[in-house]
Write a structure and sequence with these properties.
mainly beta; four-stranded antiparallel sheet; two-stranded parallel ribbon; 6 strands; 0% helix; globular
């Protein structure tokens, strides 16, 4: 499970494997599980915030993402 956190509210974000239809929503604590291969990129998004991308390497198991407001 990978944490996702928005500092001003607990909410649900979308996590998608870039270029695929493979995606999930986080729970209200920001946790999720998704199957992804080494070299693929995860895109974490929430309406009104900048998307964040994380390329998955061989040792990527768990990481944190903080989304920022769009300007």
């Amino acid at each position: 499970e990978t944490p996702f956190w928005v500092p001003w509210t607990k909410t649900v974000a979308t996590v998608l494997v870039q270029g695929t239809q493979n995606g999930v929503s986080t729970d209200f604590d920001g946790n999720y599980r998704i199957s992804v291969r080494v070299g693929q990129t995860l895109v974490v998004s929430f309406r009104g915030l900048k998307d964040r991308k994380k390329k998955i390497g061989e040792k990527t198991i768990k990481f944190s993402v903080t989304l920022l407001k769009n300007n």
